[in-house]
Amino acid sequence: MAPHPDAASIEAQVAHKHDDADRLHDLGYEQELQRGWTVLESFGSSFSVISVCTGITTSFLLGMTNGGPGVMSVGWICVSVATMFVATSMAEVVSAVPSAGGPMHWAGVLARPRHSAFAAYATGWFNFLGQAAVTASIVFGNSNLIAALAGMYGFEATPAKILGIHAGLLVLAGLLNSVSVSLLGHLNRLSILMHSAGVFAVGVAVLVKAPTHRSAREVFGTFYDGSGDPGWSVRASPAYVALTGILLAQFTITGFDASAHLAEETKDSGRAAPLGVLISVGASACFGLFYLLSLLFSLQDYQATLESSQPVLHIFLDAFGKTGAAIALGFIVLCVALCGTFSVTSNSRMMYAFARDSGIPKRWFDHVDKRTQAPIRTVWLAVFLAFVLALPSLGSAVAFTAVTSIATIGLYISYVIPIAIAGFDQQRFRTLRGPFHLGAASRPVALIATAYVAFITVVFCLPTANPVDINTLNYAPVAVGIVLVWIVLSWFLGMRKVFHGPAQGSLADSGIMKQTMASRFSSDDKSDEVKDVAAAGSIAQVVTR
């Protein structure tokens, strides 16, 4: 007689992955996008969107002004550790629900049936806002770098000219995303090499060629308040300035949901996507710290660097001279261009998934090009929105800071909604989790991530320049407020009848899953577990498409 299967053997059956297309079908969708990416490309997409050289190079002036080297260096370490909690919880959730919808889909699946549609709708719009803003900030930052590079040879930059460069870079990113998915795969691998070995080489070269070096005490202990006269350290406190200064690090380590949005194009996505999230954040934290410290240790005249329009270029000039600085900055520009390209890739997949569930006009944007098997229409929607968000730069001195705040707040709010739902409703989440999970650590990690995101959401809505007027106002809370009002009004004015949440399929109603849950506990515990299974089973009754 064959031995009776125990809980471990049944769990092994559950862990045995379906074919990816079958898994997607279990979630309620059919395979439409081309699935050919591996864990390397999954990691590369997030690693490229995070792009430490993009965030650090384009936001370096913000860090020098708000806190200085001490806040930039120590803040990077603190933000990296805190963000790993968010990334770890996200990895657990994407393993359970590997779909292009990302946070929007996760929120809909994890929330109780009564609140599922609204949770997905609200999360979708915050992710939509953050996705558009992060692309705008990446490409606009690169436009300023190109203007500075050209300025070395006589180019006179104006806000209108920089906006024109911004538009050209966006069109290039749109075209690269419209050619073929295989081209993106090749660019992805090139981007991994450039953002790792290339950035490391630039950091080493700066350290070697710098005429003098600052002491560790200066790099880790110098505080500077350049927020105004008087600065916020006088009007409020030095802690206020330090908190606003961590935006450099937090904005940089953003966009790691790209691995999730590309899950429908990734092989073995239940394992590859969470690995892509985790490895990209860990690698970015390490490479970013090295690149940041190489710049800070090589900084010569602080005041002269601060007064330059592009402080990183000033550091390169001090280290390499004009020709070497142009080569180094040109390399950074190429890295940032790849970052912008993959940000559009991530945007387009999220917007396609949102349209697929009627969050934005389904008729226009729920479309996959037959030749490329890519959502070309949402590629160009992402390009258009990133251009619109850069228009305030024509009249605002702090437009870039505001857009980076909007990107950071929008994305992290969308990240934390499904994480918080999973953290507070662990009984339900245990019945849905995928091959990557945290076990008993799931709830505490999720709650720490939730508390941290709530904290930075408040911090990044604070004004960063003094005095506060129409030109220096931080427009991030205005943008977030508009989105909140839009979500509530549109929901009650008709979207609740149109948007029913993401498809949920039969995954939670799996007979194997029920058997596993029933076998995992002793007979004394089964009565409680039946409730969990019943709750999980009810998901499939909400919407099946």
From TrEMBL:
> In terms of one coarse class, where is the protein primarily found?
membrane
The residue ranges crossing the membrane are 43-62, 74-98, 162-184, 190-208, 275-299, 319-344, 379-400, 406-424, 445-466, 472-493
Q: Which parts of the chain are coiled coil?
A: none
Q: Does the record's keyword annotation contain Protein transport?
A: no
Any one GO cellular component localisation term in the record: membrane
Check the record and name the Pfam families matching this protein.
AA_permease_2
- Membrane topology per the record? Multi-pass membrane protein
| Name recorded for this polypeptide | Amino acid/polyamine transporter I
Source species of the chain = Rhodotorula diobovata
Q: What is the lineage of its organism?
A: Eukaryota, Fungi, Dikarya, Basidiomycota, Pucciniomycotina
